[in-house]
Amino acid sequence: MERIRVFAPATVANVASGFDVLGFALERPGDIVTLIRSDQPGVRVTAIRGDGGRLPFDPAKNTAAVAAGALLEAIGRPFGLDIELDKGMPLASGLGSSAASAVAAVTGANLLAGSPLSREQLLPFTLLSEEAACGSAHADNTAPALLGGFVLVRSYDPLDVVRLPVPEGLACAVVHPHTEVRTEDARRILHKEIRLALAIRQWGNLAALVAALYRGDLELLGRSLQDVVAEPVRSVLIPGFDAVKAAALAAGALGCSISGSGPSLFALCADLAAAARAGEAMKSAFEQAGLAADLFLSRVNPDGPAVLDEETSPNQPASGA
Ligand code: HSE
Description:
The chain is an alpha+beta fold. It has two domains: 3-165, Ribosomal Protein S5, domain 2 (2-Layer Sandwich); 171-299, Alpha-Beta Plaits, CATH 3.30.70. Helix content is 34%, strand content 26%. It contains ten helices and eleven strands. The protein has helices at 63-74, 97-112, 123-134, 142-147, 183-188, 196-215, 218-224, 231-234, 241-250, 272-288, and strands at 3-13, 22-38, 43-49, 80-86, 150-156, 159-164, 171-177, 255-258, 265-269, 293-299, 306-311. The strands form two sheets. Strands 1, 2, 3, 4, 5, 6 and 11 form a seven-stranded mixed beta sheet that branches. β1 (3-13) and β2 (22-38) form a beta hairpin. Residues 316-321 have low confidence and may be disordered. L-homoserine binds next to α5.
C-alpha cells in the first residue's frame, strides 16, 4: 500500500468527574489524514486544509507528524511519509482536535507498514503529540479517539487503559461557542491540590459513572455527571456557562459539563432526539450570552478511527493477489 486516508473522531475528555482519566469518542466531527509513503526518509507535512493557516507544518510541532514520526522510529524507519491534514473541527475548542489528527496519523502509518503494532500499542505515540501540542501528555482524548467508545485511563505509568461499555442509543450534543480556550491555559489555572472533601465527591461520582455505563442505568449516569474539581475553576473562562448548562438540563439532558478543557460544553442524552433538543437550547443560551455557537450532534462512536480509502502502487500486486 502506498497511500491511505484515515478519519479519526472528535472526543469529549474528562466527562465531568474524570479529569484526565475518562473520555469518549463522537461519530462526528473529526479529522482526515492522508499518508503517502515516500522513499525520502523522515516525515513531512505537505498540506493542511481547514485550519485557517494556523497549524504548524514543522514536523516537530505538528501533532500528526510527531505521532507518526515516533511510530516510524519505533519500528525501524521502514519508509518516509508525506502527510496531508484535513481539519474537520475547530481548533482550541475542547473537542480533541490535536488528538484526532495524531490518532489518524498513527493508525494510517501503522497500516502502511503492514500493521506491526496493535491499536493499543499505538497509544504512547499519541501522548508524545499531546505533549507537543499543549505541554501535557494526557490520554483522555487520544485513547477514546483510537479505541472508540468510553475509555478510562487507570494509570499513566505504566500506561493502562480500560474500554467501558456504551449504553444503547446514548447520544451527545456538543456546543462550541465562538471563542477559544487553549488547553495549556485551562490547565495552568487549576489548583494543584484539592481538599479531601472534594476528592471524595469526585471519585464517588466517577466510580458511579462507570457503574452506570456497565448497568446501562441512565438515571445514575445523569446523577454522576458532576465535576467539583475542574468545572468550577474553568467555567469562568466560558461566557454564559451557567445559563447554557441550565438550559441543557431543563431541555432533558442527563447531564452537562465542559468538553475537555473547553470552551465547548457537552450534554449526554438518552437518544439523538433528546440531544437535538438539549443542543438547540444550549446554542440559544450561548447566543443570549452574546456568543455565536455551532452544534454537533452525535451518538457515542464505538469504533474510533476509520480507513476511508487505500491505494496500492500500480507496480505492486494487490494484497492476496
Ligand atoms: N483532560 C484534559 C484537560 C483534556 O482537561 O486539560 C484536554 O482536552
